[in-house]
Amino acid sequence: MTEAAPTEAPTATQTATGWIGRVALVRTADRATGVSQAIDLLGENTVQGKDIFLKPNYNSADPTPGSTHIDVLRALVLKLRQLGAGRITLGERSGMGDTRKVLQQRGVLDLAQELDFDTVVFDELAEEDWVRCDSPGSHWKQGFYLPRLVLESPALVQTCCLKTHRYGGHFTLSLKNSVGLAARRLTAKSHNFMDELHTSSHQRRMIAEINAAYSPALVVLDGVEAFTNGGPDRGRTVRPEVMLAGRDRVALDAVGVAILRLFGTTPDVSYGTIFQQEQIARAVELGLGVDSPEKIELLSADSAGAAFADRVREALLKK
């Protein structure tokens, strides 16, 4: 197996005043409309002419926000096609269930046949299909492994949910969604990377470190519903009725945490400033996105979105 260096690619927009993390925010209860509008509002086509690797959130077969809503997945695939993307391959590794069964239960395999995109179950990959990755100052004892097809994909798109994480992650948004790209084991008797992650006092830093291995072309975050406690499979459900899109995972997750705080969330997610949250702080150290809330630009298309964006901005800046 070969070793991969971290991918370097811009995740924000450069302006005369520095780097700005742009996050499109659409206030809607209609997921299909929200996906399309948020991507349009972002105003970037980073997928035209490129084959796509698509990472959803199917850690378990639990209903949304425990997993990606089928309406989001359908709308995202159709939007990528509209933007001129090439072949789309969806891949996943579930942490709370058999991945193939989870994809079947959530209707993903049927949708793949209907819309003609490929699916890959990471648990079924051979040892040689994985590539060792690491990041500067990594807290992973043996590094971590990502699928070669992910690292070699011309464009990676992910869609995640808005929720807390009761197993030590504190929240699971775009940064945490990348854990589903990483191998649990390479062979039946080899090191269990997920046991290492979930028993480490550095878990939240390790989550961020996985993200240093790639840079997304697009991230869509479904916040129509959210878990404000519990998670990742079930918890107290609220309805922020928002869809987000962007490329900067730090900016997106900071906005996501701000929304969770607006609806009342756990002490862990509420503690300190948003940029003091360990997932976000470590991602900033690794240069994965903006380094302060002042550098996040919230884009909205109407008065409802603008009013909600004002509330989010206030939560982002709260000391």
Any overview of this molecule?
By secondary structure, the chain is α/β, with parallel strands linked by helices. The protein has a single domain (3-317), classed as LarA, N-terminal domain (Rossmann fold, 3-Layer(aba) Sandwich), CATH 3.40.50. The protein has twelve helices and 14 strands. Strands 2, 3, 4, 5, 6, 9, 10, 11, 12, 13 and 14 form an eleven-stranded mixed sheet that branches. The N and C termini lie far apart (46 Å). Mean pLDDT is 94; it is low at 5-11.
List the helices and strands and how they pair.
Blueprint lengths: L2 E2 L8 E3 L2 E10 L3 H12 L9 E4 L14 H13 L5 E5 L6 H7 L2 H8 L2 E4 L8 E4 L10 E4 H4 L3 E11 L4 E3 L1 H4 L15 H7 L3 H8 L7 E10 L9 E2 L3 E5 L2 H14 L4 H4 L7 H8 L10 E4 L3 H15 L2
Parallel strand pairs: 1-7, 3-14, 4-5, 4-9, 5-6, 9-11
Antiparallel strand pairs: 2-3, 3-13, 7-8, 9-10, 11-12, 11-13
Helix pairs in contact: 1-2, 8-11, 9-12
